[in-house]
Amino acid sequence: MEDVIDIISYLLDHLDDEDDDMLEDRLRAVGFPDDDIQRALDWMEGFAVEEQEDTSPRSLRAYHPHEQQNLSVAARGQLHDWERLGVINGAMRERIIDRLLALGLDDTDLETLDWVTFMVMANDPGPEAFWVDTLLGADGARILH
Fold it and tell me: What whole-number distance in Å separates Cα of residue 26 and Cα of residue 11?
């Protein structure tokens, strides 16, 4: 699944808004396999889902065993800390978890969590998009612990 992350990173770095056929042709020309291209485009389409209502700030998130298996303790702790600090809200947390699980990774490290959080925040029209700059520094390094 790391190839899917590479494709999505490539899309963010090199391509503007083009139709899917042109995107697929350009990604094939670069050398990405068709299966990985389709998985990456499907992953990106996951941002088009309807927005969920925010949860109560006093609610506690219980993780399903599948989520526990695929999200590291550090990643779950970081999500909790960000929500507690007001960096993300409950609805955003759920979108982050959804996009992390959609990657199909065996375990989620903090670097992947940061990257997916950035993607979710960048695709969110709300005021939380402000926090994108505080999560990652100009060099892409993690600055909020």
Answer: 10
